[in-house]
From TrEMBL:
Family from the record: Belongs to the UPF0065 (bug) family.
InterPro entries in the record: BUG, Bug_dom1
Domain of life: Bacteria
Signal peptide: 1-23
Keyword Signal: yes
Name this polypeptide is given: Tripartite tricarboxylate transporter substrate binding protein
Keywords of this entry: Signal
CDD domains per the UniProt record, alphabetical: PBP2_Bug_TTT (cd07012)
One Pfam family linked to the record: TctC
Key word Ligase present: no
């Protein structure tokens, strides 16, 4: 009888507890998984926005690299995380668009991710070691065709946009060359600096510093216009390679089931970071364009990218049986 008197109050308290817990979010540090090695655009963009996001959210935001298997390892780790907003991922065009067509089976599906916002989009750039005796795309094509058995091209990983861009380039100009994948842009760039393969198409930010230092030579960019950071480098179209426009993108995602109000808090913090003068300045020097679209807009964008790259992978005959 005495307990019955308190039943309505206890019920009201039970209903209020989840709201109170959510309202207190975040109560401890947030982790952003980077499904690639340090030194690439995925890693750089995550670290650039993490400090401002931490200030906005009132907690620490840490970046954790989980490289390997074309972003599959890091993406699978997110899928196994609790959907509480404390584990995020800096998704990108490879694991979140291209991989669905590249691999027959993956340990994750598009439904395992909840889009938050696009962070940065960048063109790719065709680069060679500065010691390579070629000054333009035509000379590179001639060099590779003169000795196709020894020609190789590197990438940040099988299925990433640099790999697919290079495959597209080979198709457009009729080249034969062997693919050499690495666990991220950082290791791939280091290998090219050591002259371990012939050429690479890389996300612009990871190769740009070495182009400016004169250690790599940029032959063309994959944007529809020239990059402000490399105004003397032609687009692929200007270099005589038609139908070769590729834009790589990177954005924040959470596990499916993450509460909408938590996603909105993360989105608002990311939006503030992406509008900050410091981040905008860094993105400009990287040759990139800041994002900031809504979760719904980013979700629609990713779906369109999956469909687009499905056609590209099929045309290239790159789909794998496993």
């Amino acid at each position: 009888m005495k307990l019955t008197r308190f039943a309505p109050a206890l019920a009201a308290l039970a209903l209020a507890l989840p709201m109170a817990v959510q309202a207190a979010w975040p109560e401890h540090p947030i982790k952003i998984i980077v499904p690639a090695a340090p030194g690439g655009t995925t890693d750089m963009s995550a670290r650039l926005i993490s400090e401002t996001m931490a200030k906005e959210l009132g907690t620490t935001v840490v970046v954790e690299n989980k490289a390997g298997a074309a972003g599959i390892i890091g993406s699978q780790a997110l899928g196994k995380s609790r959907p509480d907003g404390y584990t995020l991922i800096m998704g990108n065009i490879g694991p979140n668009a291209i991989n669905y067509s590249m691999y027959k089976e993956l340990p994750y599906t598009p439904d395992d991710f909840k889009a938050i916002t696009l962070v940065i989009s960048v063109p790719n750039v065709l680069v060679v070691n500065a010691d390579t005796p070629v000054k333009n795309v035509q000379e590179l094509v001639a060099l590779v065709k003169s000795n196709p058995d020894k020609a190789t091209f590197g990438s940040s990983g099988t299925g990433q946009s640099p790999h697919l861009s290079a495959e597209m380039f080979r198709q457009r100009v009729g080249l034969e060359a062997t693919h050499v994948p690495y666990k991220g842009a950082g290791p791939a760039v280091s290998a090219l600096l050591a002259n371990q393969f012939t050429f690479m198409i890389d996300n612009l930010p990871s190769s740009l510093p070495f182009v400016k230092e004169g250690r790599l030579r940029a032959l063309a960019v994959t944007g529809d216009t020239r990059s402000d950071q490399l105004p003397d480098v032609p687009t692929m179209a200007e270099a005589g390679v038609k139908d070769m426009v590729v834009t790589a993108w990177f954005g924040l995602m959470a596990p499916k089931g993450t509460p909408d109000d938590v996603v909105q808090k993360i989105y608002q913090a990311a939006k503030v970071a992406l509008a900050s003068p410091e981040v905008l300045s860094h993105f400009k020097t990287m040759g990139g364009k800041a994002g900031g679209n809504t979760p719904a807009e980013f979700e629609a964008f990713i779906a369109a990218e999956r469909a687009k790259w499905s056609k590209t992978v099929e045309a290239a005959g790159l789909a794998k049986s496993r």
